[in-house]
Amino acid sequence: MKISYNWLKEFIQTDKTPEEISTILTGTGLEVESLEHVQAIPGGLEGLVIGYVKECADHANSDHLHITRVDVGGTEDLQIVCGAANVTAGQKVVVATIGATLYPTGGEPFVIKKSKIRGELSEGMICAEDEIGLGQSHEGIMVLGDDAVAGTLAKDYFKLNDDYLYEIGLTPNRADAASHLGTARDIAAFLKIAIQKPDVSAFKVDNKSGTIEVVVENAEAAPHYSGVVISGIEVKESPKWLTEKLAVIGVRSINNIVDVTNFVLHDLGQPLHAFDADKIKGNKVIVKTVAEGTLFKTLDDVERKLSADDLMICNAEEPMCIGGVFGGIDSGVTASTTKIFLESAYFNPVSVRKTAKRHGLKTDSSFRFERGTDPNATVYALKRAALLIQEVAGGVIASDVVDLYPSPVAPFEVELSYKNTIRLIGQDIPHDEIKAIVNALDIEVVNETAEGLSLKVPPYRVDVTRDVDVIEEVLRIYGYNNIH
Question: Which of left, alpha, beta for 371 (phi over 0: left; psi -120 to 50: alpha)?
Fold first, then answer.
């Protein structure tokens, strides 16, 4: 599992270094297999500075070259020979200094050397955006705004967000940690700091013009099913912040709608699916199984023969998606989509696991559903995604939130004995410390006596159902190294 350091810090406020966070994660049971420095662009603009062109004259031995004198914030100006037609005195520019390695867009890296060009000394290079990997244009040098200050490092001026990527060997029992939120929860508990979840209070229903009827016929396979309609959207490329966030963790950008669903999956751990609402025949979504042998073509253009046990998301006439596993080829978002039905659900882990195995499918969604997502987080994640979609694609909320949850999943009730905790750990941990740890892990203290705690463990912690499981949680957050 890939986790971004910068992304984690959106949930927790800490000045711990990437290396220190790595040690904390491994120490609390989320083993970091590797830590990689990820540059926002190749080379990270090392050796590049902002310059001010003080003078610009035609080269005596050329009909297109210019000789410039550039202030780069040092004690002496640089003389640079430049062939760009748009260079002139008074400009703020990007200068590659001697020894800098440039990584041009679509080209091979090269090193800047002191040279003579047509008999004139050149002590660097004034750069176009494609020459430094910041874009595609080669129409001329980059001309910066008045806010640029000579001598400023280019990487600081462009605010490059270098990141660090953790590869975590997630064990099957820790489905709760299969997201940045889940990973941050452990760090926050260890550091005794608050976790900051995204605010969704701005979500509001604008109208009900797009209302779609939803029926769940198989509540055993889909215990909690939520959805909402968003209309008036524009499907296009995602903004830079979103594509960069996904790229760091190895997720390819598709379009702004699909990218938001992928973002929320890795942000909160809740898989989502967006349907083109205009393709939902009969204006109705039915969650059910279909007849054995029904043929269904998935997004990968493979026609599959369905089992009578496969949970399908259907419209009034036909299946649209294999629930929790894979979408259909005809119901998804395309460039012409203007209205979507956004699904956020909790699917039965056993049902998803069997279906995924039956069809040889393994997706980011099925990975999480198979292990058990948070059955009570569907609406929160839905609102988070809806607000992000409005931010990157426009649109209005065109229906009430559909929220079908006939039999809410109850928390696990666990009695924790202080005496048994001491016996298993071999050391007395202060009772207040134990309470603080369980609270930090979203475990509710219902009652406390001199002998122990009555607890309610959230249902997304499928690995914590007994007192020994809680004791293990206390121990890993308290710190194995603190046991003597």
Answer: alpha
